[in-house]
Amino acid sequence: MQVAGQTNIVNLLRLDRQPTIRRADLERRHRVDIASSWASFHNQLAAGLNMGLAGIPWWTTDIGGFHGGNPDHPAFRELFTRWFQWGPRAQAGEPAHGQWYLVVPVFEAGQRKITAYLPAGASWKLWDAEKVYSGGCEVEVDCPIETRPVFVRV
Fold it and tell me: Where in the numbering of this chain does the Glycosyl hydrolase family 31 C-terminal domain appear (predicted)?
């Protein structure tokens, strides 16, 4: 690839060893194909956190899973939508509680309200709203299927 003139090359690996960071390896978080289920989706959060604790900064998820989903079924479409709402943030290696943003993943079918803990020491507002919340407490917010809750530090 370098001989062809490409730069910023990233390899997608399916291994259970720590990748060589200098080669920009990108680790997948599992050794087997995952199911298209809410339980598998939720497990991807724990898997990603464990990758970070193991010193592997870049990781990815298989959005939507690989088996058991029916694209024509509304329940699978909801799962797929929620996974896409969370996945790109996770894949970028950004933690849920970043310095400026707090992404609240929705891991339950049919959920339209969610409770989130806002870290102390800052004020927060939803990305698309003006109401400001004090940090250091839990808040309940709407989470319609069309969007995911993203708080911005103000």
Answer: 98-153
